Amino acid sequence: MANFARHFRVSPDRLGPEQIREYQLFLVERKKVSWAVFNQTVCALRFFYHHTLHRDWMIEHIPYPRHEQKLPVVVSHAEVAAVFEATRNLKHRAILMTIYAAGLRVSELTNLQVTDIDSPRQVICVRQGKGRKDRQVMLSPKLLELLRVYWKRYRPMLWLFPGKIPERPITRETVFTICRQAGEVAQLAKPISPHTLRHCFATHLLEEATDLRRIQILMGHRNLKTTARYLHVSNLAVRSTVSPLDRLPYSDPIPAP
């Protein structure tokens, strides 16, 4: 609201719909702000005029912007394997494989403790994930084998993946750097990030005919609509759909010379 008032050099209680529209265009066309910043501005304007000034009629002139819909970036099974093979550092490979094998968010990975790996029950306990919720995900036998080798070499005490200071976990920035460098060494066309590996986890499960509800639980999504995004990036439905061309009643589509 301070930025809004500063833009016109007038107290915001003296401004109306025309100035609000002008300011919104200024943010989009001149400042080229992100959707998140634009939406935050709209929320502030709506709150100010509705709750502070009690001008309910102003709300109609401050609509919420439509969120841009972007599909998750995913890579194939072979490309994920190439990323792992290109990572020669044992700790780095363990980090990448843990994200992909369990579909973890980067914050969930960094907060993993040694005791969260429940090998007898074959699960990983994710503590206080997004929305401050706990959940369990499967513990891959291949991942468990790698984590055992990793533990014997590094002997982590509290955090499964400690940072430079052993008493603290690895940072998010370091994990992003590990992913980016692994993708570059593997010479992949698409950039690799922790989000990419998490998206691949969901998409690859979907392509193996895992139901959406189960994927939702594993991913820790509150809303099934969030999980349903992966229907748009999975090529299972595309590959299994017969083109209408193949159903035409003739068998020689190539004309004779």
Topology summary:
Elements lengths: L1 H7 L8 H14 L4 H18 L24 H10 L3 H13 L3 H5 L6 E2 L4 E4 L8 E4 L2 H14 L17 H14 L8 H14 L4 H8 L4 H5 L1 H4 L2 H5 L17
Antiparallel strand pairs: 1-2, 2-3
Helix pairs in contact: 4-8, 5-7, 5-9
List keywords for this structure.
257 residues
Brief overview:
The protein has helices at 2-8, 17-30, 35-52, 77-86, 90-102, 106-110, 141-154, 172-185, 194-207, 212-219, 224-228, 230-233, 236-240, and strands spanning 117-118, 123-126, 135-138.
Overview of the structural elements:
- By secondary structure, this protein is mostly helical.
- The protein has helices at residues 2-8, 17-30, 35-52, 77-86, 90-102, 106-110, 141-154, 172-185, 194-207, 212-219, 224-228, 230-233, 236-240, and strands at residues 117-118, 123-126, 135-138.
- A 3-stranded antiparallel sheet has the order 1-2-3.
- A hairpin with a 4-residue loop joins β1 (117-118) and β2.
- The longest helix has 18 residues, at 35-52.
- The N and C termini lie far apart (72 Å).
**Largest pleated sheet:** 3 strands, antiparallel
User: What is the chain-wise order of helices and strands?
Assistant: HHHHHHEEEHHHHHHH
Query: What is the residue-mean pLDDT, rounded to a whole number?
Result: 85
What structural class do the secondary elements suggest? Answer: mainly alpha
Q: Percentage of helical residues? A: 40-55%
